[in-house]
Amino acid sequence: MYGYANQGADVSDKAGTRVTRIARRTVDSHLPVLVGLMAEEGQEPAMQSERASKLVSLLRRAEVASTLNVGGRAVPLQLEDNGAEHRLIINGEMLARVEDTALAGALAEPVAQTLNISPVAAALVLQVSDEQQLRGLAGRIGAGGEAISPTQIGELVRWRLETFEKRLLDLVSGLGGWLEKPPLSRQEFLEEVSQCPGRWPQWSLVADSAYLSTWRDELSRELDRTDWGEYVPQIGELVWESVAISPHSALRQAAQTVRGFSAAGDTKKLLEVLARVFGDGTPVDDSLGAWPVFEEMVDAWKRMWREEDDALGARRRHFEVPDISVFDRPGEATGFSEPANLPWDEPLLCWSMRERGALRDLFQGMEKTLARGRSHFRVGRLSAHRATAVAPLVNASKDAHWTLKVPRRLPELPEGFSQAVDRSFSALHSSYHLAFANLDETSQQQIIRNARGAYAGYLASTRPIWARRLSSGDGDTLSDHFETSLTALSDAVEWPIFVDAFEEGIDSPAVAPMPRFTVPAVWFEDVDFAPIWIPVEAIGEGLDQAPLRIRNVAVSEEDKKVRWLGDYEIDQTMLGELHTATVLRSIHEGTLLVAVCEV
User: What does the pLDDT average to over 133-160?
Assistant: First the structure.
């Protein structure tokens, strides 16, 4: 005896979608091999067709139960076979805890029982996940008998035609149109497809049928209103071919076809729509790491990025390397534009194998070049975390004069100093964005240009890296561009520093002709100076030539507001005039300790 609870509102729809995905993959990839096993055991073609159709029906209509028990013990699935009626029930609770491969393996028993083949052989076949290996097995297994082709499995052909129709409807909807199913019968076409050999008939063999001609006419009527009307035959063929292969294979094939479209339409958008359509409700993972064909490129990209981090003085080793989507245009995603013979404006999925290899080689070459000049210094005592939502600075400036000193000793920092630095960093960040929002668009663009000029002008040895990392996508707003130029240096070196293209003050700042590197200095009531740690690497890189602004602030213990006390400008020669011996004594962990004092 066994018992189960029917699927209800408490069981996620994702479970049913996942079961459908596994069922489709089993039918498309494994069924030809399983049919070969039936042929080797001497089953007649008519029996093969009947049993294979029964299996397809069983898998596509599988039910998900919240729980499933046999004799008081939880089981992953159960086959209920009462002659003409058969049901496959899957344990939803277990489904949530296992990988797809584990569930596919659990299907071995009901598959073997339905097809009347060896359970051991069925289990071995279902454990294989590589598509090429399965195709090879299908060519070898069954050679000793008369194995039917997938087109002779009536239930499979019906499922694929239903899938084809639904994908056409979804595709038109995704492209902004509306398409209804035309009033036609698919029975005559089902018989026509069953006479075609192989896994699935080529489009050219069936495109002139009344069934597909009607669909093509309806598709033309709707897509003629879009950028894609010229390519209806190619798009129809892409959808037709997609029903017999995996979503990844269908998308790779579609990408090569879409690249040849010369219309003004957005090919990236078309590929994203096709990905949703081919996934049948399950989003296709678009990250490079999810596609085996891009494995070498992903590794090369990660190694190059980490070498660039080292070259920039980064110490955030826990930062994730930015992922790239297969739908991204590499010219935007990576910032590269050379060599010019690569199609930088095409989605990466559209690139040929040779072009993908060239991009991988570019990443590897950059990695080796950077590794030869790798720095062994790390920066900083202060840490700059990513800015949080803190109110902007409050103007509490006072009539004061400031000077710069190099302390002879490492000061005893007051309690809460690091938290005060973080809060000051976030408050200053909010102030910059508030000031930016109050500018007109022309001034905003000038602020961004000036800030980015600081990276190119003062950080010359890493200029090419900054040029790429500061590049942004077409969809980014001016505020996004501003955020990147303001905090990219801080993100890299984990030092509380902003690339500041404003003139002065915090009330109504104007655009400065020359940007400054600005660092908050936190004052406490019981300390007579505000300590600042300047990375030695940064001094050598460009801060000895660039204007450095110390923005003096105080954090209120009562209301936690951050108040602006005034600024102190360090000119190009000031650090050079400090006594060498004093400077050397003030270097700690790769940073120079300086102090801003009130005169």
Answer: 82
- What is the three-class DSSP state of 290? helix
Residue spans of alpha helices (H) in 209-352: 210-223, 232-242, 247-258, 267-278, 295-311, 330-333
Q: Determine the Cα–Cα distance for residues 73 and 235; give it in Å rounded to an integer.
A: 50
**Cβ-based neighbours of 72, under 8 Å, separated by 6 or more:** none
* CA distance linking residue 399 with residue 432, whole number of Å: 23
- Tokens at 260, concatenated: 């040849």
The one-letter amino acid code at 241 reads: E
534 forms beta bridges with 592
- pLDDT value, residue 126: 84
Alpha carbon 274 to its chain's center: 17
Q: Is the pTM of this model over 0.85?
A: no
Q: Rounded to the nearest 10 degrees, what angle do helices 154-174 and 210-223 cross at?
A: 10
Instruction: Tell me 288's DSSP state.
Output: G
User: Are 159 and 56 contacting, i.e. CB atoms less than 8 angstroms apart?
Assistant: yes
User: What residue type is 570 in one-letter code?
Assistant: I
* pLDDT tens-digit map of 348-389: 999 999 999 999 999 999 888 877 765 544 444 455 556 677
Backbone dihedral region for residue 420 (phi beyond 0: left; psi -120 to 50: alpha; all else: beta): alpha
H or E, element range at 278: helix 267-278
